[in-house]
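$ ./design --mode recover --in tokens.txt
reading tokens...
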């Protein structure tokens, strides 16, 4: 990346990865930076910046629109929602989150955006907010079984999987699975090692989760987790994506609180 960042929001559209906001790890300064990574060309492009600097937001895409939801701003913030149209290359405001959140997660499922858990006012939350882009309106789904923040979340086999995270001073191994048909959560296969501020992505029948030196892979065919190879850069608050058979990890902060501009790629097909 041309600018090293951690706690950035990112989503994939048509095989390209769009990033927004984040912070400078050493100072905590909020950023409005917006970029696009094209894996096929191995190129970054600088886009129109966010309307305001945002860190620890979540992002998800529906069609050709990337939604950046919540996150803190220099003025406080936490409920703002911005939408980036990849065709017109413009930002716009959408209906705000029902409550302020940061260190939460956003997942697209059935053309709706699910915003899960997160942190605000000194505590973790269980809320699950559901955004319908067509009507620009919010509703609620069944809350998480436990209060969580700083976790990973992916859409997998028509359901939402929530991985690890933090509650109080505990880094977690928990996995929770949401069934949208029944609006119900159930426990999933516990991870061998705890993780927080992780990057997670789906590749075929596998979920890949990366955090610092830990790389865990869930295989639905065996219903087991296994350890993957150690990442090249040890970092947290990163993002992970699976595009065309490769796993990409971007952004994040090292244990020395220095952000990394490195993009790692691993063949996973």
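writing sequence...
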């Amino acid at each position: 990346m041309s600018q090293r960042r951690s706690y950035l929001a990112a989503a994939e559209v048509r095989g390209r990865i769009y990033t927004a906001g984040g912070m400078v790890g050493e100072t905590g300064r909020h950023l409005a930076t917006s970029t696009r990574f094209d894996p096929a060309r191995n190129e970054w492009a600088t886009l129109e910046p966010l309307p305001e600097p945002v860190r620890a937001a979540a992002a998800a895409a529906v069609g050709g629109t990337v939604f950046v939801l919540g996150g803190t701003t220099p003025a406080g913030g936490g409920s703002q929602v911005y939408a980036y149209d990849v065709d017109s290359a413009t930002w716009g405001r959408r209906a705000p989150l029902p409550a302020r959140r940061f260190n939460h997660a956003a997942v697209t499922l059935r053309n709706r955006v699910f915003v899960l858990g997160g942190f605000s006012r000194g505590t973790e939350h269980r809320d699950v907010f559901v955004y319908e882009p067509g009507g620009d309106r919010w509703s609620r789904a069944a809350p998480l079984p436990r209060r969580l923040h700083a976790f990973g979340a992916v859409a997998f086999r028509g359901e939402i999987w929530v991985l690890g995270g933090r509650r109080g001073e505990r880094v977690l191994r928990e996995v929770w699975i949401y069934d949208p048909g029944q609006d119900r959560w159930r426990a999933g296969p516990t991870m061998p090692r705890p993780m927080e501020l992780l990057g997670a992505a789906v590749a075929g029948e596998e979920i890949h989760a990366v955090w610092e030196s830990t790389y865990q892979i869930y295989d639905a065919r065996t219903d087991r987790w296994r350890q993957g190879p150690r990442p090249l850069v040890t970092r947290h608050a990163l993002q992970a994506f699976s595009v065309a058979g490769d796993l990409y990890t971007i952004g994040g902060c090292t244990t020395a609180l220095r952000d990394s501009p490195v993009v790692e790629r691993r063949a996973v097909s």
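exit 0
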